[in-house]
Amino acid sequence: MKKILLTALTAAICIFCQAKPQTELNIIPQPKSVSLAKGSLKVRGANFNYDATLDELTVKAIGRLAEDLYICSGKPSSMATAVGVGKDTPIEKLKGIFFFKDGSLAAEQYTIEVGKKAAKVCASTMNGFLYALSTLRQIMPEAIFAGKTAEGVKWTIPCCTIKDEPRFAYRGLMLDCARHFYSVDEVKRYLDIAAFYKINRFHWHLTEDQGWRIEIKKYPKLTEVGAFRSGTQQTYDKTKNDGKRYGGYYTQEQIREVVEYASTLGITTIPELDLPGHMLAAMASYPWLGCAGGPYQVWTRWGVSDQVLCVGKEETFTFLQDVLDEICELFPSEYIHIGGDECPKTEWSKCPVCQAKIAQLGLKDGNGATKEQRLQNYVTARIQKYLAGKGRKVIGWDEILEGELAEGATVMSWRGTTGGIKASQMGYDVIMSPTTYCYLDYNQGPGSGEFLGAGYTKKGKNYDAANLYSFEPLADIPESAAKHILGVQANMWTEYIRNERQLHYMLNPRLQALSEVQWCTPENKDYTRFESKMKAKHFKILDTLGYIYRPID
Ligand code: ACM
Ligand code: ZN
Questions:
Q1: N or C: which terminal CB in the chain sees fewer CB atoms within 10 Å?
Q2: What are the pocket residues of ligand 1 if the criterion is a CB atom closer than 6 Å to any ligand atom?
Q3: Percentage of the chain with pLDDT > 90?
Q4: CATH 3.30.379.10: does it fit domain 25-164?
Q5: 3-state secondary structure of 157
Q6: What does 324-339 look like in DSSP terms, one character per residue?
Q7: Radius of gyration (Cα) for the chain, nearest Å?
Q8: What pTM does this model have?
Q9: Alpha-carbon distance values, 304 to 79, 244, 246, 301, 344 (Å)
């Protein structure tokens, strides 16, 4: 009887243990499944072993962890190919930290098993291994991020089993380098922290009314003229600016450097050439691109300009295609973002050349779209076709849905989720990026510690991490259309974000909240747990890495 009771009690305790949420490891984004066991593995001086079939970049990433462990713990770790053992070798037979390729796992899946003598990490792709490495770093002492030897640290990781995979394939983060310019090193630091939270797409906003930031060899004035403005609006008052020359651009060599760097972090860089609106910097460089022929100035204020590309002219398409040729050479991404947002039709409705094009194409008002709107549809379709000829697909802001949109375009839903819901039902792929949750330029609170951002509340909503965390990307999406929601992206517009300190303050901890929206299924999300993980571990990691953040109240 006693024995039965004891067994029942043990079973009850075990059920209790299993049911208890596994928050102790403080991993962000929360893995799909985590189970903690008793004991820990010593990692100081541990030997790293990897499958001989792993690619060079994966081996380098493993090497970075081995090296950091050496630097921070003061004891060297060896790196060698695993011999005579494989993914099916029981962990009890291993000693050290092992990385095995497991072809049965999906592209971004990984597993980690930590025993008292060994850890076994399995994945089938570089990205799977990168996510496992990020998770491993997160379960190590914070001293692993210090970049120097730390004293008095217990270099162990807890025994556990982690099985993990993302909810969404597209996990994006945008940076507007046009309103304010960020150096290559600043962009790299932005990518480092994004990758650490398992973001896999970097949307690089490179062209704007207020600045053209990418060297295009065929059109040198884009950077000689278009990369610089004569002043910057500093407050919400559009009539005032500081009158100081401001600008910068990336050479093609620097662009390649960033694209390559991102790829080593498992991030694909998607460039945005915003067209046919938001093009004043290009028009200031080559005034024939505009309906009125100029002169134009790189804009010194924020907002939406009425002055947009003249799309009645063939020369404009030649220009766009030439620019896209160079962009496609620099960015190997499957997608090119072609903007499409905020394109007023004031100029087109007055321009004889644009009106002649409308007549030639037989475009008419009707069915909820003006003939000028249909002219924008023509531009989108023509550029989409041009890029398809180069094997690329387009993403556009949700305005591209107004009127008609050719098959195969992907819609980035920013004006709420309505456009995304509609597009997914029509069979277009969608990336959800609604302003009220995913715009990181809005202040996170009304506090006096905040600098001037794009604003604080809109329709009674806050823009803090809790708000972003509450976003459910599939809300109101019929089940049949859910497959079209590729994922979620947050956007860092930088009108009011002038330097890296402000950038990091606006990013953290919304980046971490974003990562759980992108990675975790709704059942696996828990804001209270997220907050406690931030407080217990991640703010310390950010401190150690030197990233500024907004504290959670
Ligand atoms: C946008 O915020 N104009 C896409
Ligand atoms: Zn025109």
A1: N
A2: 341-342, 397, 414
A3: 92
A4: yes
A5: strand
A6: HHHHHHH---SEEEEE
A7: 26
A8: 0.95
A9: 54, 21, 20, 9, 8
Secondary element (H or E) of residue 528: helix 527-533
Which CATH superfamily, name and number, covers 172-545?
Answer: Glycosidases (3.20.20.80)
Cα–Cα distance list, 21 to 17, 168, 528 (Å): 8, 23, 12
> How far apart, in whole angstroms, are the C-alpha atoms of residue 481 and residue 496?
37
Could you read off the pLDDT of 101-151 as tens digits, one per residue?
999 999 999 999 999 999 999 999 999 999 999 999 999 999 999 999 999
Measured in Å, residue 453 CA sits from the centre of ligand 1 at 16
Other C-beta atoms lying within 10 Å of the C-beta of residue 90 = 11
- pLDDT tens-place string over residues 207-247: 999 999 999 999 999 999 999 999 999 999 999 999 999 99
For residues 177 and 213, the answer to whether their CB atoms sit within 8 Å is yes
Please name the residue whose Cα sits nearest to atom 2 of ligand 1.
414
Nearest atom in ligand 1 to the alpha carbon of residue 342 is: 3
* Residue 457: CB atoms within 10 Å: 13
| Number of the ligand closest to the Cα of 310 | 2
Higher pLDDT, 443 or 420: 420
Closest CA to 412 of 517, 465, 337, 480: 337
Strands 268-275 and 201-205: parallel
Whether residue 473 is preceded by a cis peptide bond, meaning omega within 30 degrees of 0, is no
332-354 pLDDT tens trace: 999 999 999 999 999 999 999 99
Nearest to 537 by CA among 54, 164, 196, 99: 196
Matching residue, tokens 């004293």: 151
Domain boundaries, the chain: 25-164, 172-545
Concatenated DSSP letters of 362-402: T---BTTB-HHHHHHHHHHHHHHHHHHTTT-EEEEEGGGGS
Atom 1 in ligand 1: which residue has the minimum CA distance?
341
